[in-house]
Amino acid sequence: MFERCKTDEKECTYRYCYCRCFGCALFAIALVLVVGLVVQLLWNGLIPTIFAVGTISYLQALGLLILARLLFGSCGHRRGHHGHRHGGWCGWTKKDTGECGDWKHYDAWWHEEGKESFKKYATGKKENKDAPIL
């Protein structure tokens, strides 16, 4: 179904981005529905026998998932990326030029040169406190 959405890595089109976004949305919805069913089956299989409480319906299992997300938060948040959005989808970083393949080298650059460059920059800013921060 999404085969026609694929393009060459160097050629970025909005059609590819929309197809990818639509596919991810469908996958996320399907995943939530399946996880809700798993929660219902696990709850009904374990909790009533352990704590002598009643069983729950499918909608109650989905509500339990939402409640857990609200209480515990950060579902799927990956720590350690410091807010960097590299890689992205086509056209996210360089919409005008149409290049999206350059960001796949970001991690290697950051580990080889980026950390050291940032340390030098931060040291220079600490020494010269009057200089404006860009």
SSE arrangement:
Blueprint: H1 14-51, H2 58-72, H3 106-127
Helix pairs in contact: 1-2
Q: Which range best describes the helical content: under 10%, 10-25%, 25-40%, 40-55%, 55-70% or over 70%?
A: 55-70%
What does the radius of gyration come to?
23 Å
> How many strands in all?
0
Domain module count = 2
Give the integer mean of the pLDDT values.
Answer: 75
In N-to-C order, the SSE pattern is HHH
Distance N terminus to C terminus? 46 Å
Please state roughly what percent of the residues sit in beta strands, choosing from under 5%, 5-15%, 15-25%, 25-35%, 35-45% or over 45%: under 5%
> How would you characterize the largest beta sheet?
none
Shape: elongated
Put simply, the count of helices is 3
Low-confidence runs of at least 5 consecutive residues:
81-87
> Helix- and strand-based class?
mainly alpha
Offer a few descriptive terms:
134 residues, mainly alpha, 2 domains
Characterize the structure shown:
The protein is mainly alpha-helical and 134 residues long. It folds into 2 domains: 1-74, no CATH class; 87-127, no CATH class. The protein contains 3 helices and no strands. Helix 1 (14-51) packs across helix 2 (58-72). The chain is elongated and about 65 Å long. The model is unreliable at 81-87 (pLDDT under 50).
